[in-house]
Amino acid sequence: MKALAYFDIFDYPLSQQEIKNFLGYRISESQFRQAFQRLFFGETIFKVGEFYSLRNDPDIAERRTEGNLRANKLLPRAARIGAFLYRFPYVRGVAVSGSLSKNYADEKADIDFFIITKSNRLWIARTLLHLFKKLTFLFGRQHFYCMNYFIDEKAMNLQDQNIYSAMEVVTLLPVAGKGIMNKFFRINEWTEEWFPAYVAEHELRVSDRNSIFKKMIERGFDRKMGDRFDDIFFKWTSRRWQKKEQSGRKNTKGKVMNLVTGKHFSKSDPGAFQAKIVALHEYKVEQLRNRWPQFFD
């Protein structure tokens, strides 16, 4: 019920296997089947199309099916773009994140990326990547290059440890830098406290191909010069985004723009989205607990 409550926030029903995948504890197949049947035949959960939900609403199943089909077409492109981004200086790992990493894409889908950079070079890498993104606006392709979350090798142990961040970590789809991405997952094994039974259902081709441009820039910005430029870009970007937030500027989806920054991380959090999802999930679970106390002993 907690698993279904989380995805209910996004109007996204789950298959039986997905429900089991997102449980907060390990369970045998017979135990799962027994509990599932008790909830289903007691009309606590409902079958909608090929999926299950806390709501008896067939429309959300149709919406999911269409979104899955769009995602299947978009994921190969995401893998190619991620491999291309990996060839930029100081980029050490790239993964698809957001709704696409969960195999869903709506009509105006973005391709979101999670990027790991070399230690103390995040802001050089981010600046170069976003300068390139400026060019994509000329061709209307900017929504394919949404680089929303950067960390460097010194910040791989994420500080936000809640159901939202755990969900985002376990569903990441690595597309470049296999070694560093595997290290990232090992460092963030705290996610097993939230999803101990999770097994990735989707995988993409992972690239480790670099470029001459990457090698030349990294050689040129080595040591003290690189440290100096990274600090300059960090301070400049932080000030720029603070002004955007203070002026109440909104993104294309109508949410107030917000960039949370530190020397070793940069993450977009428009409208304090993460905190809202965590609070909304807790509220939904409390509602279920009050309505069905027998299932929350």
Model description:
The chain has 297 residues and is an alpha+beta fold. The protein has one domain (64-275). The protein is 47% helix and 13% strand. The chain has ten helices and eight strands. The strands form two sheets. Strands 6-3-4-5-8-7 form a six-stranded mixed beta sheet. It has a two-stranded antiparallel sheet with strand order 1-2.
Uncertain segments are: none
Biggest pleated sheet:
6 strands, mixed
Spatial ordering of strands, largest sheet:
6-3-4-5-8-7
Number of domains: 1
The secondary structure category is alpha+beta
- Discrete helix count: 10
**Principal-axis shape:** elongated
Percent in helix: 40-55%
Strand content: 5-15%
> Distance N terminus to C terminus?
13 Å
Oligomer: single chain
Number of strands: 8
The whole-number mean of residue pLDDT values reads 92
